[in-house]
Amino acid sequence: MLGKFFQKPGKEESERVPPGQHLAKGFPVLTYGETPQVSAEEWEFRVWGLAKSATFSWSDFMALPQHEFTADFHCVTRWSKLDVKWTGIKVTDFMGLIELDPKVAQIMEHCYGGYTTNISLEDFLREENFFAFKVFGEDLPAEHGGPMRLVVPHLYAWKSAKWINGLEFLAAEELGFWERNGYHRRGEPWAEERYSNAFGF
Q1: Does residue 96 surpass a pLDDT of 70?
Q2: Cα angle 5-23-25, degrees, rounded to a multiple of 5
Q3: CA dihedral (152, 157, 158, 160) positive or negative
Q4: What is the structure's pLDDT at 200?
């Protein structure tokens, strides 16, 4: 299995690969439940909670500055893919449209299909984070989270929510789907924050 689909990082790559990870030869697809099928035309994005409520269309997002991003991608299931090339919109550019309550400290990411994952405001607002709608120059396929996903390169990939369609701004931490089911609250790859200590892992 290791030789067919994954490989150990070479000497030049080892500094970029977190502990316990192997390099994927392709781009694996891991999904819990069915894959939502949402067109760009019907996609919409909501903001609520401790923020001025707003709804954004696909064209609203496409009107924001678009950038090319190259980022390494680390899955909690112990594979990494280096130099993934995306096209997307910076989180910081989008957040320029949002009016936040000063009490905001946490965010719940909401997605088509009902998936949720939590992230701190501090982690979310990092300059390298973005909403992706293309990968390797092609429209982001549904199996990889299309038409739009969040990408948070410094955390394990379950925080880079696929099929994202909303942000709920919170004063205190609430746990999302995988966090309620034993995954770590934050998920930092270099610290191997895979699972919650509360579950004995």
Answers
A1: yes
A2: 40
A3: positive
A4: 40
